[in-house]
Amino acid sequence: MAIDFTFPPEVEEARQRVRAFMDEEVRPTEQRLSEARAGRAEWRAELDRLRQEAQQAGLWMPHMPPDWGGMGLGPTALAAVSAEAATTRFGPYVLNCYAPDEGNMHTLLHFGTPEQKERYLRPMCEGRLRSCFAMTEPEVAGSDPTLIQTRAELRGDQWILNGHKWFISGARGAGFAIVIARTEPDPPVPQAATSALIVDIPSPGFEIVRDVVTMAGSHNHCELRFTDVAVPAGNLLGERGGGHRLGQARLGPARLAHCMRWLGQIQTALDLLVARARTRYAHGSLLAEKQGIQWLVSESAIELYQAKLMVLHAAYLIEHGRDYRTAVSMTKHHVANTLWRVVDRALQVHGALGYSTDSPLAEMLQQARWSRLADGADEVHKWRVATEVIETFATQGSTAPALGDLPV
Predict the structure, then answer these.
(1) Contact, 220 vs 172, CB < 8 A?
(2) pLDDT, tens digit (0-9, with 9 covering 90-100), for 224-238
(3) How many domains, the chain?
(4) What is the rounded CA–CA span in Å between residue 294 and residue 274?
């Protein structure tokens, strides 16, 4: 049988080393700083120290090839270590495999020129430079990138960029932005209207308007304006008119990378739920002995089991060069909703403690809500899945090939 749900020894060894590093180094540091109510400078110093230790321990950039300083793990192995890293708050950042830089590294690796890689990718891999990806706009639906209004006009050896973006994660403190802008006035198809440009930060005419405050507070999701920003012609990333294709090539694996990290958060929430249920006594018995609580445990366990299998299979499809788009849409929808439900159940079992900031669950729930919007809202992914299933039946007489093309 070709089906095997174990990892090769080298991948399992990497997973265990990441788990140990999170348990022994990252989590205790986070707990100590939180309890001490440490300031931003102390957090920064400690995170920098952990990043250096991760690099020295060979746990740096699990998603990048060894010749760029990474661990060289494929998508399936990356799922294993990403889930472990995400059981802590800053684990992915400590390993230099966090959003949006992880996706931008892949984008530069596959679409960048040698000069672009040396100028932008190299310092990112060395932990010296951060980035952002600027596509979403407030005036048009973010789920339809063919509506993008930000424009770039080629004048001589420069692109002149004008437009408005928002919810651009990581913009404050970034050294550059990959900006998707409309460059083609009369494209043959709407998907060929935009291009990707690398914009240095700061640049004349580039403005961070504000950090958009969300229900979870301020988390560097910025509103940006571009006013006659001059971008060198050599900063075109990929082909002209290829912005949509580049964006989709980036966002497909990036969506799955989010899911990989969410698995770690779901597992943490379920562990907290069960730990609380086993120790909290009320009305004659432990919560864990009450059927209503047991249902919450079983539903969460079933959904997490499904989520893990879906992530692994979608990663397998990417790793083997097969069509992964529908599988990733299914996975993103399911894992995002599982994150939301399991964290909510864990908070419920904790009662008032879960609602307070004495527990991590309140912040986890606030953060979990964005998962159903980021990188495609629930409804968009469900629509994509439905159209693929219907089209597959129309052309092949069965829906089975649209369900991951599994041999069952």
Answers:
(1) yes
(2) 999 999 999 999 999
(3) 3
(4) 9
